[in-house]
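can u pls check wat happens w/ heme C
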Amino acid sequence: MHLKFPMTLMALMIGATGMTTAQAYEGDWKRGRVYYRGVCTTCHTAQGSSPISPNARTMDEWSAYLKADKHAGGKDTVSQYVGKAYRDSIKESNKAAEKYADVPDEELMEDVRVFLLKGAKDGDSPASCS
Ligand code: HEC
């Protein structure tokens, strides 16, 4: 009789934890910042016309941009540069890509998203690119 209650409680707790994980992943802005600066900015500085600071746009503008998922004037997508395949292709020479090589695409995308929103012009802590 003594054992029954704790077991039930444990089952409930495991069930509840499982549910939260499946429901929503909360982005890690610190990881997003490392990735944005290490991968996105590195390329913008090398190939683009400017480094593209998070604080160059508002939260609404970033949300709309990421939702549309059209990058470099629609030439390709933002999600492609977050994806595992891209990380794999540059990880030999890129520390951030190597560090997060095994992070699921959706999680890393969410990390980058929360970093950009936080660093937006009207975000919690407007951030430049470096
Ligand atoms: C392989 C190089 C490369 C990588 C990696 C890259 N970009 Fe870009 N990005 C560009 C180029 C080239 C442009 C277009 C020229 C410009 O505006 O500087 C651009 C433009 C942009 C723009 C300006 C609007 C637009 O789409 O034209 C944003 C915002 C942007 N990139 C976000 C990102 C984010 C977020 C990541 C990382 C997840 C990323 N980029 C990764 C090369 C890259």
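Residues 39-40, 43-44, 47-50, 52, 65, 71-73, 78, 81-82, 112 surround heme C (CB under 6 Å).
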